[in-house]
Amino acid sequence: xxxxxxxxxxxxxxxxxxxxxxxxxxxxxxYDIPITLIDIFxxxxxxxxxxxxxxxxxxxxxxxxxxxxxxxxxxLVYAFIHILYVLAFYGEEMMIAYxxxxxxxxxxxxxxRRGSFWHTQFIIIALGYHFYGESVQEKQxxxxxxxxxxxxxxxxxxxxxxxxxxxxxxLKAQFSPHFLFNALWYIYGLVHDTGNQNATKAxxxxxxxxxxxxxxxxxxxxxxxxDELQYAHNFIELQRLRTPMIKLDYQVKGELEGIKILPxxxxxxxxxxxxxxxxxxxxNPLRVHLNVxxxxxxxxxxxxxxxxxGKERSSGIGLDNVxxxxxxxxGDNFKLNTENTGEFYTSELIINCRENIPLxxxxxxxxxx
Length: 369
What we know:
This protein has helices at residues 2-6, 10-30, 37-68, 71-99, 108-193, 198-215, 225-242, 266-276, 318-330, 363-368; strands at 223-224, 248-253, 260-261, 277-278, 286-293, 297-306, 334-340, 344-352. By secondary structure, it is of the alpha+beta class. Strands 2, 4, 5, 6, 7 and 8 form a six-stranded mixed sheet that branches.
């Protein structure tokens, strides 16, 4: 058991051996012990008893009793070992005196006093070393637990990021093809029914929208708000080419430069209004208002009168998926309010652009923690 405790800890063994050698040299110098064979043997034997005392308490006795907390038994064990140590110390003194033919020089009272002193001293040393070792182990354990916690958090954040990225990619993959299908359907109807030159403008608008959609396929990256608004405006113009009677109240206020937003979101609310709205009344136009407040807060407002006629062909995405995209990307940094009065449908999207889409920490950040 003794060697099992020390096995595999070569550095600690080297430290202990070095300390004992230094201690032996200090004892020889302090007590001015003559460098003779018998004196070196006597000192080495005494030191061997000290080592037995120290390691017995350090490796076995103290760990056992601090674990079981049988303090009365510990006192009895101490008394028993103390007696054995004093007897062994007395036997050593008698043996050295016999070798030196000086039996009469052994003072029993002095032997008991010195034996008790050395025994108690090394118990105190073992006790201090025990508490020191427990403290070091506790700190190491806390450090290991903290490292495990950080690693678990890192893995969790990486997993969450991968899930968010996959979800955004899936939602965006659904959005673009369906919308482009609808746009092509509109242009087809425009060319087929009228054959006028507006078809050229429609194709130009659709081309710009397709280019924008393809350039912003990195779902974990934001886009310029100005570009996103231009994309939405192109859609409105495309709709007005198809249905010239659409009435529009389009307003943009605030400083747009430097503001970024999740791509292909604003259009969803406009498309929804165009699909389900009655937009040909001068007093009830399609209202699309965007206001940038405090350089980081976007307020986007869409209102339309509800049409009770047949619905337009739907892209199949819906505002629920848009809300999922916003939740995945912004967390608590957005608010979406919708209201259906039966006559009017209103959507208000508020985004705090102070926070970007979260990214997992790097390994360097973990090391700094």
